[in-house]
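Is magnesium ion placement plausible here? Inputs below.
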Amino acid sequence: MKILIAEDDPTSRRILGAVLTKLGYDVVSVADGNEAWEELKKDSSPRLAVLDWMMPGLTGLEVCSKVRARGAEEYTYIILLTSNSSHEDIVEGMKSGADDYVVKPFNRSELEARVKAGLRIINLQSELLLAKEKIRVQSRTDALTGIANRRAIFDHLDGELNRSERERKNISIAMLDLDHFKSINDSYGHQAGDAVLKECVRRISSTIRPYDFLGRYGGEEFLLVLPGTDESNAMLVCERILEQVQAEPVVFKGISIPCTLSIGLATWSGREDVDKLIEASDKALYMAKDKGRNRVVFF
Ligand SMILES: [Mg+2]
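Reply from A.M.:
I modeled the complex. Tokens:
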């Protein structure tokens, strides 16, 4: 864990550094407020800072205010070092955004205890951020297949439509539907159905290009966004997908289950309404089903 010490008095800086290094922290020492702010602005900045109140450049209070004004997601815990110990000064320090203060000359064990209290807060906040990120990812991922869920694919499609309008490029979207999926479930059970879905997603994902984006639209339906792709290139991608999916049956508990897909394809240039695009690819998909499945149809 990295800790920043900003203190202009060399003796005090050395003692602080020695105390914190002995406790096993990775100490970064600076001698003025401007340098302190530079350190705290960095991407992998220390999460805990001990700032002297009075120092050249920015004061500890000013550094504090700057850190708080930035409003970064990762919290920086700040301990102010002060020779001012009147209540008014302490209140002013806390108002500027300091979490705690230590009065100079400091007592080593008190400093240790206050740093440890700060680290407890930092650790709690890190756990909170991790949990938040995990929930964010979960809320955008399809639990069974691990690809984007409906919400995530729509967000992505919206972004790509804006981009294709801005860059005046084509965009294609494909609605993919596993053929006779209900009868797979009915004949072999839902676990077999799940295995088929997962394996088909694996095959499709290994076929598409790095900038294509696949999401689960509903039960056995998938939406594929193909940015910067015109009709003929979209057709090529979709034909490769059909080949991959039907190349060999999916084997589940020794049972071979043949799989095919039907795909409805639509291509646009310029801004279009998301609903219209979905509707068009849906219509094309129904035509593909009508014509005997295991094929791609253009809207
Ligand atoms: Mg000073």
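Short version: The chain has two domains: 2-136, 150-298.
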